[in-house]
Amino acid sequence: MSRPKALLLGEIDHARKTWESLSDVADLVYPRSSNRKDFLEECRRGDFDGVVAVYRTFPSFEITGLFDEELVGQLPKSLKFIAHNGAGYDQVDVHACSARDPPIFVSNVPTAVNDATADTNMFLILGALRGFNYSMLGLRKGEWRGKPSPPLGHDPEGKVLGILGMGGIGRNLKKKAEAFGMQVQYFNRSPLSDELSGGAKYVSFDELLATSDILSLNLPLNKNTRHIISTKEFDKMKKDIVIVNTARGAVIDEDALVKALEKGQVWSCGLDVYEEEPKIHPGLIANPHVLLVPHMGTWTVETQTKMEEWCISNVRSALETGKLKSPVPEQKGMH
Q: CA-CA distance, 286 to 296, in Å (whole number)?
C-alpha cells in the first residue's frame, strides 16, 4: 500500500524541522503553481492524488484563492484533512468541505494567537484613545505634536470597553484591559459562564453599542457577521466612541466607518485588518485620527512558532489517528 502524502501550501518559517519530521509517516509534497488557475490545473491532472492532509497558511491564498466550492470540488478524493495555520479561517468554506463526499475535515489554531492578538488590540486601544497617531505623523514632518496641535486624548481608567465576540482573544483582552482600570462588558451569541467570562457584564448588542466608550471587534467573519457594524450601528453609539478591530476587516463596513469618523460620531479608531487587504480605504489612510497596523496581530517569533507547531501537530494527528487535534466548531462531532 502506498504511503499517504501531505501537501504544504505556503511557507513554514520557524518549525521546518517539525514539518520535515512528518516524512516518517507521509511523503511531503509541494505545488509547482503560483496562482489559482495553475493550481486547479495541477488538481485536475492528478498531481495531488494520494494527498490525505493539507497544511495551509493565510498567504497561500495567493496560490489557491479561496477554498470555495469550486476548489473543493477539484481536490483529490484522497484528501480528508485541511490544517489551517490561523485562528480565523474565513478563506475556507467549511460548509463545502463538510458537504463533499467524502467530507474534508478542517482544523484551525484557536488559542496560540490569543496573547499576541490581544496585545495588539490593547496597543490599538491605547493609541486610539490617546490620539497618538496624529502627533506621530506630525513629529516625522518636523511639526512636533502636529499643526494645529491635537486635541487632548483620553485615559483608559474608568472607560467602558465593549467586546463584540468573547472568544479566546476577547477573554484575553478583557484581562489586559482590566489591568488599565477599564470596565468590560460584552456581547456574544450566548452568555458565557461566570468562570469563562471572568465576571464581565453580558449585555445585548444594542446596549453594547449604546453604552461602550470603546468598541473592540473580536468575532469571526462569516455571512452573519459581514458588515455587522455599519451606518445604523454607528448611529446607535455614543458620540466620540473609539473603534478597534483586530478580527477581520469585513466585519465593519469601511465606507460607513469613514463617514462616521468624518462627521465626528467616531472619535478615532485603531485597525489591524481591512476589508480588501492589502488595499486600504483611502478615507482611512487620509485621516490622521486613524491608527493603522498592517495585519500584524500575530507578527512575533514566539507566536508564529507556536502556530506552526500547532498546525503541524494537527497534520500529524490526522495522519496517525485519523482525527484532527483542534477541529473547527462547525465540524465538532462529525468525526
A: 21
32 is catalytic: no
Active-site position among 95, 295, 309, 330: 295
> What pLDDT score does 144 carry?
96
235, three cell numbers: 448611529
- Locate 222 and state its grid cell: 462569516
H or E stretch covering 231: helix 231-236
Environment class of residue 32 by beta-carbon count within 10 Å: exposed (0-12), middle (13-18) or buried (19+)?
Answer: exposed
| Degrees to nearest 5, angle at CA 90 with 242 and 261 | 20
Residue 217: strand, helix, or coil: strand
Query: Sign of dihedral through CA atoms 73, 110, 125, 142?
Result: negative
pLDDT of residue 78: 97
Catalytic residue among 41, 42, 277, 309: 277
- Per-residue confidence at 27, pLDDT binned at 50, 70, 90? very high
Give the DSSP H or E segment for 89: none
Catalytic annotation present for 3? no
Q: Evaluate whether 334 touches 105 at the Cβ level (below 8 Å).
A: yes
Catalytic, 16? Answer no
Q: Which position among 248, 254, 275, 281 bears the catalytic label?
A: 248
